[in-house]
Amino acid sequence: MNTTDSTASSAKSSTPTRNILIGVLVVALLLLGVYLWGHFQTRSQLSAQQSEHEQRMSAVEGRLQQAQQDLSAANSRNQLLLARTALYRTATDLDQRNFGTASTHLQEAAAALGRVDASTGNINAQQLAALRGSIADMNINVATDLQQQRERVLRLATQLDALAGEMPDAAAAR
Hints:
By secondary structure, this protein is an all-alpha fold. The protein has a domain of 100 residues. Helix content is 84%, strand content 0%. It has 5 helices and no strands. The longest helix is centred in the N-terminal third of the chain and has 94 residues. It is rod-shaped and about 125 Å long. It starts with a helix and ends with a helix. The C terminus is likely disordered.
């Protein structure tokens, strides 16, 4: 009976230890399950937020690109207007017989046309280049009859006005 009692008492003493270990194991598995569930929930939320941020970034990049194109078009339009102003000042300078100033304004007009980016608007690049060449090649001569030179400057200004009219106004484009 002694052997049976010792086996029975050892089984009884291992049962509570065994139950505690099983309980600890069950709690550990539950904690691991809760952790993994929370991890995957957070991961899916982060993934959704990342996707939303990427969409917003794409929209901002699109607006930035449009703003850069608008700025480039406005700069080109500004250069056309500066060239126009310089041509009309050339005509005024000729009327006042300021030949040096007229020549300077003529070269300013050519330089301004050189800074125009024809790709930003619907400007004919060949017409722009031809007009710039005509202005750059024109020489203001000291003469008693300035009518021919003045008429040529005004014809160039008219050509520039027609060319600038092809480019949409920045305010009207919005």
